[in-house]
Design goal:
By secondary structure, the protein is mainly alpha-helical. Helices cover 64% and strands 1% of the residues. It starts with a helix and ends in a 7-residue tail after the last helix.
């Protein structure tokens, strides 16, 4: 406050504020955002939309057990495979062998830039795209990843570290539930990628991107995408020799003891309703909560003041709507003529 007053910048003239999203800055109580709002009701706070997308994913991860377990295991997989220069070399050798085998079986196309040998990128909490890249890379390099982990698990524990961890991870990565959630996250994040790209373009694209992702694609995936999705997962399991459960069997919780069973549901019901639908529903809820219509409207309307390309985006109707809906104190007693 002192800084603004020192440079003769009246607080009552603030019309917007934005920070990195930390609670000390953007929280609703007794922090910088709320302090400014006390003196200026029209100093609207707009959180970085790209960060909102990341937070929606993080919230889903924190609140859904299967998703949390998946990302926890994904981190362990990446750390194990890329834990040393020797392991990275072994992983790349496994990729080369896998590519040669698939080329010989005519399963891959050839051409410039095709069939590149790489690594497993790490997922970071602050970058949404890093999670998506990590998931895509694991699907593409699934067999070389399993081969590398299996080789570590079969090493002499007196010579090689993390042998016990490798054995546990190898069991998990070859489990049907892990593969199921891997593909589910791939589908959801692949759909949400449209919104991510929209956030990097001009603000007019955000509203359309948000509507496309939440109202059409994710909803369509939930309502009509189950059969195609489970067929894709089963095909992946068959290709990579992963045991699949009988989807018509009763789903057993824990060790399978009768005292642990609280519901009489099938395996298909568990994966379809308890994981597939529940994950999509929670992601939709978070996207709608973190991208409220009023904030999107404020940003879209404000884009009419974008000075780029000689105010190419200027729109008098949007400007009047902006003043009427969000800054009525600035427009009181004024009449607009279009």
């Amino acid at each position: 406050m002192f800084f603004l007053n020192h440079y003769n910048l009246p607080i009552e003239n603030i019309r917007g504020q934005g920070y990195d999203g930390a609670n000390s800055m953007s929280g609703k109580w007794n922090v910088l955002q709320s302090l400014f709002l006390e003196d200026c009701k029209q100093a609207y706070y707009v959180h970085c939309f790209a960060h909102r997308l990341q937070l929606a994913l993080v919230k889903t991860t924190e609140n859904l057990g299967p998703v949390w377990k998946f990302f926890s295991m994904l981190t362990s997989i990446v750390n194990l495979v890329t834990g040393s220069s020797q392991r990275i070399t072994d992983f790349q050798s496994a990729q080369e062998d896998d590519i040669n085998e698939r080329l010989a079986a005519d399963e891959l196309e050839t051409g410039r830039g095709a069939n590149q040998i790489g690594t497993l990128p790490r997922a970071t909490d602050t970058r949404w795209s890093s999670h998506f890249n990590s998931v895509c890379s694991l699907i593409d390099k699934f067999d070389p990843t399993c081969t590398t982990i299996e080789n570590i698990s079969m090493s002499d524990p007196n010579v090689t570290c993390s042998v016990g961890q490798a054995r546990r991870i190898f069991e998990e990565i070859r489990d049907f539930k892990f593969v199921f959630v891997l593909h589910l996250i791939y589908e959801i994040m692949g759909t949400t990628e449209i919104l991510c790209q929209g956030l990097q373009k001009k603000t007019q694209d955000i509203d359309n991107a948000m509507a496309l992702v939440t109202k059409r694609l994710l909803t369509k995936l939930r309502e009509d995408g189950w059969r195609h999705f489970i067929e894709t997962v089963c095909l992946f399991c068959a290709t990579h020799n992963i045991d699949m459960p009988n989807m018509e069997d009763r789903y057993m919780v824990g060790t399978g003891r009768s005292c642990q069973q609280y519901d009489n549901i099938t395996v298909d019901h568990h994966y379809h309703i308890d994981i597939f639908n529940a994950t999509i529903d929670f992601q939709l809820k978070e996207l709608n909560r973190r991208f409220p219509e009023d904030t999107i409207e404020l940003l879209v309307l404000s884009s009419c003041l974008d000075p780029r390309e000689s105010f190419k985006s200027f729109n008098i109707e949007n400007l009047c709507t902006l003043a009427k809906n969000f800054y009525p104190l600035d427009s009181v007693h004024k009449k607009y003529t279009l």
